[in-house]
Write a structure and sequence with these properties.
Layout (H helix, E strand, L loop, with lengths): L6 E5 L2 E8 L11 H11 L1 H9 L1 H17 L5 E5 L1 H12 L1 H5 L6 E5 L17 H10 L7 E6 L5 H12 L3 E6 L5 H5 L2 E4 L14 H20 L3 E2 L2 E2 L7 H18 L1
Parallel strand pairs: 3-4, 3-5, 5-6, 6-7
Antiparallel strand pairs: 1-2, 8-9
Length: about 260
Amino acid sequence: MTSGKRDPITTGSEELATEGVPPASEHVDKLPPAAALALMLDRQENAITAVRAALNQIETAAIAAHDRLANRPGGRLIYAGAGTSARIGVQDGVELPPTFNWPRDRLAFLVAGGLPALTSAIENAEDDAVAGGNAVAGHAVGPDDVVIAVAASGQTAFTVGAMQAAGAAGAVSIGIANNANTALLAAADYPILLATGSEIIAGSTRLTAGTAQKICLNLISNMIMIRMGYVAHGMMATMVPTNEKLRRRRQQIDAILNTDQH
């Protein structure tokens, strides 16, 4: 294949853009290291492009999430996913308590295969839609909550099952996928398409798709925290000082905030 076009791979009756095979000119295993690294870096630009194109969807979802959490003091921010997408969701969520002092009891994770799947692949866990629904029920997800479900393919059974169950339970449901016209986006109250296209290593969505997912989640969670009042003068006003570096930062923040009040 030398035409420069990418070969889509079919999954069922659908073609997934994220599964396209690169043309011969982009086979990174055949390129010198410098060229391969440059090509991989260049491909990351697709993540920024995809997120920028979805900014309106991201804003709508973030405002809806904030409004639900602000008006329901017991409401939780819940991340759902499998494999790489689950790990990216957990990475975003676990930073909220130390960065913003977001209450730990208002944060939860629904991971295909359970927490052990964060460090080891659990065979067939992502293929179980019933398990996704059971995870929602097991965490007593309800109308106070916001569930953000992430799947590059948009078809992951566990994640789709969780999204459908979350919506049925009355939670605000936000679905993030890197393929259009997929079940996850259809199941979400607030669908966000990050159209990153094919990967430089075919199907390895931890690359450009994963980068776009992390940026998107950063934007959503930061906007929620900003509107909740956890940011002042561009600083982490409620940050928890858990080490010497952060204690110095806490002093700097407090000095600026106290000066502003006088």
